[in-house]
Amino acid sequence: KGAAILHMLAKFLQLDTLQNGLNEYLTTFKYSNADTKDLWNVFSKHTNQSLEVKVIMDTWTNQMGFPLVTLVREEDEILATQDRFLLTTESINSSVRSMPKSKFDYKWFVPLTYFTSKYPEEVHTVWMNMSDVRIEVDSDVKWIKANINQSGFYRVMYDETMWTNIIADLRSNHTIFNP
């Protein structure tokens, strides 16, 4: 999980920000002890955005598992919801009863990257701030592809219509998802 989270962090912070932050962190704490929050604070200092890296990353490091993002078409919007990913229905039934509590209620800050069937060259990012999000799309968009280049540590499930459209488009052009 740690390597996947660092990969995701590098994608949303940008690689140079990650490297500069790691260099400062290692230099600052080379002869002393550090806490996880010290690492997140160094990254926050190096971002040009108003990202509170600690707030985002606490949802990834202080609860087990990772999210399943489900995408459902609702007219001219895509509703993106998140739940904790569990492998099977049996594990869901037994896990719900025995699942330890999480102060984040098994919700994460998810950098949801996507492109649409209409504009596959335009990659967008929306933040799921421990909540559901709605993505406005043109009426002629048949599907969206989420988690571009698998840069996020989450799984994606599409509604049946989007799956059908994705399959049809892949059959006619198997390279549509290539970076």
Sheet with most strands: strand arrangement: 5-2-1-7
Second rung of CATH, namely the architecture of the largest domain: Sandwich
| Assembly state of the chains shown | single chain
Number of helical segments?
6
Overall pLDDT confidence: 91
Terminal CA distance: 24 Å
Helix content: 25-40%
Q: How big a fraction of the residues is strand?
A: 15-25%
Number of strands: 7
Unreliable stretches (pLDDT < 50, length at least 5) are: none
**CATH class wording of the largest domain:** Mainly Beta
Number of domains: 2
Helix and strand pattern: HHHHEEHEEEEEH
Q: Compute the gyration radius: what is it? A: 18 Å
Task: Say what the CATH topology of the largest domain is.
Answer: Immunoglobulin-like
- Shape annotation: globular
Main β-sheet description = 4 strands, mixed
The SS-based structural class is alpha+beta
What key attributes describe this structure?
single chain; 179 residues; alpha+beta; Immunoglobulin-like; 4-stranded mixed beta sheet; 3-stranded antiparallel beta sheet; 39% helix; globular; Peptidase M1 membrane alanine aminopeptidase domain-containing protein; Peptidase_M1_dom; metalloaminopeptidase activity
